[in-house]
Fold:
Amino acid sequence: MGRVLIIGAGGVGTVVAHKIANNPDVFTDILLASRTKSKCDAIASAVGNNRIKTAQVDANNVNELVNLINSFKPDIVVNVALPYQDLTIMEACLETRTAYLDTANYEPENEAKFEYSWQWAYHERFKNAGITAILGCGFDPGVTSIYTAYAAKHHFDEIHYLDIVDCNAGDHGKAFATNFNPEINIREVTQKGKYWENGEWKYTEPHEIHKALNYPNIGPKESYLIYHEELESLVKNFPTLKRARFWMTFGQEYLTHLRVIQNIGMAGIEPILFEGKEIVPIKFLKAVLPDPGELGENYTGETSIGCRIRGIKDGKEKTYYIYNNCKHQDAFHETGAQGVSYTTGVPATVGAMMYLKGIWKGMGVFNVEEFDPDPFLQELAKQGLPWTELFDIDLEL
Ligand code: NDP
Structure:
């Protein structure tokens, strides 16, 4: 049905490559390209059967990307490199008139700030070029946004309160490790908290608001209000929302390590001079921390991510909780990667399928909640991430 270029050979790239290779009826030809070709080769050989070709590319370089796209001629580019590369890859897609999909919004390398404005600014150019860009098609953003769209479509006349709850109750046996790229992860969780209420953004100190929430099959876990990128597009696309918040669980050990890392300056993104050479502290830190892609083997426990929603149906108030639980061990046995990479890579694969099958279509730049959630969720369940719904329950929030 279609040719796909995957860019990025980390934890998420590993899952995307496995899942895409396992769906030959949709993905006929696959090229996996990244900065370090040996990592692509290792993934291709783990997948086997010569299903995946590999290439080296510097995704910061538009010309290199254009040459690669012109030589392989993919129908869609799945960007699972870093958020820093979003705009260069979008530029290359525009120049070659190729569809684009990613899992994280653009973030400038020299400023710890992420928002959709940079990518939304491409809407007219993508529309005029007659091509599609699908933004934020991982789990969160991604499935959480699609859960919200599904709730709005099937269960509510108006959704008023949305709480996205993200719990990782896994244990990887390391004193400190992040579940996806450490640089991006630490930048994300150390920033100020932010949520939407009564038509405006409210700000908090980092991790200032927290409470214990009960997660299915897991139990109570301390959950912290942080800012997460899907809130920005969801409050725009669901204007009935009076409040939208995002909660993530952190263990005490993790928070203590994070505080020390910040206090000693290791989370810094400004270059410093070290033995005559410029280094960026957080990049150096990434190099000494465990590689999230390697955590899978000893990872036990599970993730639980979902949306708790309160709103109105037929004039009555209603509560609703939709979620998925994913076991790290199951993810590892299937793809060689842990649950967080798995819950990101499977939705990215399904998003690319929706595009290639012609189910999700449109010219311009779209967030995933703008498409029909039903075929996506049905396929997502088939590909390993089923959902559960609970009605009229105590949302705890
Ligand atoms: P990794 O750090 O494990 O992998 C990133 C990959 O991108 C690496 O292979 C890296 O190459 C490659 N890369 C980095 N810079 C370049 C470049 N200039 N040119 C080409 N390739 C490059 O990250 P993850 O797999 O954990 O995460 C991938 C993406 O998924 C990130 O954007 C992350 O934010 C997003 N994500 C989204 C989630 C969601 O639910 N929406 C959840 C988790 C992650 P090298 O191997 O040489 O370092």
In short: The longest strand covers residues 302-313.
